[in-house]
Amino acid sequence: MTEIFHTFDDLPSPVILLAIGTRDIIWANYSAQEWLGRSMKSLQGQPIDLVLRDDDDVLYRACRTVLDNMAPVHIHDFAIRYNSEGPAQMSAVTVFKSGESLACQFSPQVESSSRSLKGIQTMNAMGRMLAHEIKNPLAGINGAAQLVRDEITTREGHALIDLIEAEIARIRRLADRMGQLGDQDTNLSDEVNIHEIVRHARRIMEPAINRRIIFVEHFDPSLPLLKGDSDALIQALLNLIKNAAEAIDKNQEGDVIMLETTYENGTTRRIGDETAAQHLPVIVRVSDNGPGIDDNMRERLFQPFTSSKPSGHGLGLALVSKVAAAHGGIIDAQNCNGWTEFSLRLPAPENI
Fold it and tell me: Are both 207 and 155 inside the same structural domain?
């Protein structure tokens, strides 16, 4: 157990170890003590419920799920109070079994809900503005495609023109809806095949990359059809693939973008005062073997106008975040064993 203490003490995020049977606090690392403003002596032996007020028993249910499934549970947008007189604090938390105890690792969220809301409102306003600006050149592009079609005689050439015209139609539909995406009256009732969406986005992006990148697909064929907006989801995947291609700076053989889908229990999302957490088991992951995410960018990665690229406008990942939120999901990113992973986590249909 002493070795586990030393390992967790090196982490910059708060970690609390609980007794499995009682959920009393066994130990807390230095970061947790600073976060809570309490010493180890005052924490040891205390029930976690008395230290962290959890009105909806989210943490309790997460502990039960870990023990039942023997797998970690990740909770996003977790509202807790460690000061009975203060406001609720937002944090992400991962609960997992560690030896003969349960470990709770917290990631207090620096960005407040109001700032997140402001970011979404900014994207809404920009969506309405860009819709007007985008639709004007689309008409010219469509006319040019028609002229080029008349000059092409090969089947492959006509297939490319078909793809261009289909994309023009999709972008026009997307421009019409982008400003309203995520509003209360948004219609996300269409059934969509997430694998078709991922492959369509790959088919569009491959010719545009203009250099050798190996695409690898690992799809879970058992995934159900989802409820959503196919045009918006395609745009989100296009942005993630484009972001991955631009992040790979080796420009040589061995540049890889991996496209994955999987079904994993353990991630939930709570919004505002909702009484029940929404499970997000469907994961669409875009990974690259580039240099990874700069730690200084991580907190602001999905905020509008945040970009590490000299010519970047910082709207691509913000739009992905908006699409994810509109579908009841989230987008997160991490560096993992030499890969940069962007994971779009979505709810499954209620009837499975």
Answer: no
H or E element: which one contains 73?
strand 73-80
pLDDT tens track for 175-197? 666 555 544 445 677 899 999 99
The neighbour count for residue 231, using CB atoms within 10 Å, is 23
Amino acid at 96: F
Calpha distance 60→215 (Å, rounded): 41
pLDDT band (50, 70, 90) for residue 310: very low
Tell me: do 172 and 102 sit in the same domain. no
Q: What is the mean pLDDT of the chain?
A: 79
> Rounded distance, CA 213 to CA 248, Å?
9
Total domains present in the chain: 3
Question: Is 272:113 a contact under the CB 8 Å cutoff?
Answer: yes
320 lies in the same domain as 197? yes
Helices (H), the chain: 2-9, 30-36, 40-43, 48-51, 58-69, 113-151, 155-178, 194-209, 230-247, 316-326
Q: Are 340 and 244 in contact (CB under 8 A)?
A: yes
User: Residue type at 326?
Assistant: A
The whole-model pTM stands at 0.57
Could you tell me if 101 and 116 lie in one domain?
A: no
Greater pLDDT, 120 or 234: 234
Q: Are 246 and 239 in contact (CB under 8 A)?
A: no
CA dihedral 32, 340, 269, 230 (to 10 degrees): 170
Q: What is the pLDDT of residues 312-327, one digit of tens each?
A: 445 678 788 888 888 8
Q: Do residues 91 and 190 share a domain?
A: no
Kind of pairing, strands 73-80 and 25-28? unpaired
> Is 221 found in the same domain as 320?
yes
